[in-house]
Design brief:
By secondary structure, the protein is an all-alpha fold. It contains 14 helices and no strands.
Length: 293
């Protein structure tokens, strides 16, 4: 999100506030429509070279991104970026925030080289303005890690995530959701590279962090259980994978009752783990509950 400029027009403020409320409540088409009206109001009252107008464009992009319209969102973010470049300057933190938004959309639409350049530019601005140990710099490092994964440059991705974690551990604390997210990203890179020892150690940290930030019924904790189980499965350590999948299945049945495909997927994984260990009775009993799903 771009920070709001000084608000002079109540109507614009009301439209923007109403749109944000709709966005937070996941009423995305309504939010997009309200931000479109806020853009029109900002143009009337401030003109098209004002930060409020750029903010409206940014927020329309935010709504489209949440609805999965990535190409449309990227276009709005770029329009906002061009205005912020003029109104705030290329060395401003607001411009760095706008760059971050554009870089994220570039990654989502597959423009990975462009995304790398954009995030590096944002990082340079943030480091100069805030110092290299600021949490905003960690955000840029994490986003670069995601881009390097897509560019199939795992060592660069690992380094970027490690740089991010060195900052978030100090700036935000090891129990912060952002720190936990980056831990999870790093663990996944290790597992994709078959660096099993590192992956196991990392996922142990991920589970502790996810538990601390959201508890056992948090979806991210459940996802971490499943991902950790696959690390053991891929090493044929089925006895270690089993309890993780048992716990994940129990939690999914409690928390994700309306998502039968998610539950069925974990049941299927657990059935295979049972069979790999010769536990045919447990596998068959679970298979009976998974039929037709």
């Amino acid at each position: 999100m771009l920070p709001l400029a000084s608000l002079h027009a109540q109507t614009w403020e009301e439209l923007n506030s109403a749109a944000m409320n709709a966005y937070r409540e996941q009423r995305l088409p309504e939010a997009q429509n309200l931000w479109q009206k806020a853009k029109e109001q900002a143009e009337k009252e401030f003109g098209t070279k004002h930060l409020n107008f750029a903010t409206a464009l940014n927020n329309i992009g935010l709504a489209h991104k949440a609805m999965g319209d990535f190409a449309v969102a990227e276009n709005y973010y770029k329009q906002s970026l061009a205005i912020v470049k003029v109104t705030e300057g290329e060395n401003s933190l607001i411009y760095a925030s706008a760059l971050n938004n554009v870089g994220e959309l570039q990654r989502l639409v597959g423009k990975f080289e462009d995304a790398e350049k954009t995030h590096l530019q944002a990082l340079a601005i943030r480091q100069k303005a805030l110092g290299a140990e600021h949490a905003y710099c960690a955000q840029s490092h994490n986003n670069l890690g995601l881009v390097y994964e897509k560019l199939q440059q795992p060592e660069k991705a690992i380094k970027a995530y490690q740089d991010a974690l060195a900052i978030t551990g100090k700036a935000l604390g090891e129990k912060h959701p952002i720190h936990a997210r980056t831990l999870h990203n790093l663990a996944l890179v290790y597992s994709l590279q078959n660096k099993w020892e590192e992956a196991e150690k990392q996922f142990d940290l991920v589970l502790k962090a996810r538990y601390a930030t959201g508890g056992k019924q948090d979806v991210e904790y459940i996802n971490a259980l499943c991902d950790f189980a696959m690390v053991y499965y891929n090493q044929a350590k089925y006895a270690q994978a089993e309890p993780l999948l048992v716990e994940a299945l129990k939690l999914k049945e409690e928390v994700l009752k309306d998502k039968s495909a998610e539950i069925a997927r974990t049941k299927g994984d657990l059935i295979e783990v049972y069979e790999r260990q010769g536990k045919t009775t447990q596998a068959e009993e679970l298979r009976k509950t998974n039929k037709g799903k």
